[in-house]
Design a protein that fits this description.
The chain is mainly alpha-helical and about 270 residues long. It contains 9 helices and no strands.
Length: about 270
């Protein structure tokens, strides 16, 4: 039953991510004649991204509507990107994975952290898609998540009466965000973008420690290298072109948040045995 609820929630939040990403981009670049209110995620009606026809409720059922319409708009027959069902399914899968791998238990504090984590997953997916498509990380999403991260850390520390939570978050903040800020300043923005620096501060807070923050950077760099080398070898990417780093950082944070403690324990055990 829990999995069913999480899957349904994930599909709905995945649909929200698709709408959020499109509306933020449309608002920022004024690519349509729609007003800011019509494009608002809070007040605007759901619409086709091509013809801007307002969609009926039966056009908004995650995955099912896209499949039943064979990937095209009911009104203008324009193709609807497979991104839409894929994002919905991805968020549903991440919600379920979070429940399976949840490392903090499901006592009251653990439940609070789990609810926050589902919100973070939703925001991270929006950043993932936006950076992948346009190589930008919108401040509106990053700063909203940053505020939520600070609220979560404060609540966690107060409820558990454990102020090491704040200290560990600060260490992670320095490990990721501080490192990226130095790289940005030294290179004049050539090695890493300003958006990645802001994202680094956010992910560092959530990593939960200095070592965990360094793990995020290491895993993200490793994933980026694994992806970049085949692209370069196939000449689909040149050394002068940028590859968005945000998606790799987000994947790395998910891994560290859910499995970081187990990974560290495993390495510490091997080190002791050696």
């Amino acid at each position: 039953m829990v999995y069913l609820v999480l899957i349904m929630l994930g599909l709905c939040f995945g649909s929200f991510v698709n709408a959020l990403v499109w509306r933020i981009h449309e608002t920022a670049y004024k690519q349509s004649k729609k007003t800011r209110k019509e494009l608002s995620i809070l007040h605007g009606r759901s619409m086709c991204t091509s013809c801007h026809h307002v969609l009926a409720w039966y056009d908004l059922i995650p995955v099912i509507s896209w499949a039943s319409l064979k990937g095209s708009c009911r009104y203008c027959r324009s193709a609807i990107s497979p991104q839409y069902p894929l994002v919905e399914l991805a968020v549903a899968a991440l919600f379920s994975l979070a429940y399976i791998a949840w490392p903090y238990g499901l006592e009251p504090i653990g439940i609070m952290l789990f609810i926050f984590w589902l919100i973070f997953i939703t925001g991270f997916m929006a950043l993932f898609i936006y950076d992948l498509r346009w190589m930008l990380l919108p401040n509106s999403i990053v700063f909203t998540l940053l505020v939520l991260a600070l609220v979560q850390i404060a609540l966690h520390a107060l409820l558990e009466q454990n102020y090491n939570v704040i200290a560990n978050a600060a260490y992670g903040f320095v490990a990721v965000g501080g490192l990226f800020y130095v790289l940005y300043q030294v290179s004049g923005g050539k090695w890493i973008g300003g958006g990645d620096v802001k994202l680094g501060f956010l992910l560092g807070l959530l990593a939960g420690g200095f070592l965990e923050g360094l793990m995020v950077v290491f895993i993200a760099s490793l994933l980026g290298t694994i992806i970049a080398i085949p692209l370069l070898s196939m000449k689909k990417q040149s050394l002068t072109k940028q590859i968005p780093f945000g998606p790799f950082l987000i994947i790395a944070l998910v891994i560290v948040y859910l499995y970081g403690a187990a990974i560290i324990e495993q390495f510490q055990g091997q080190f002791i045995l050696v």
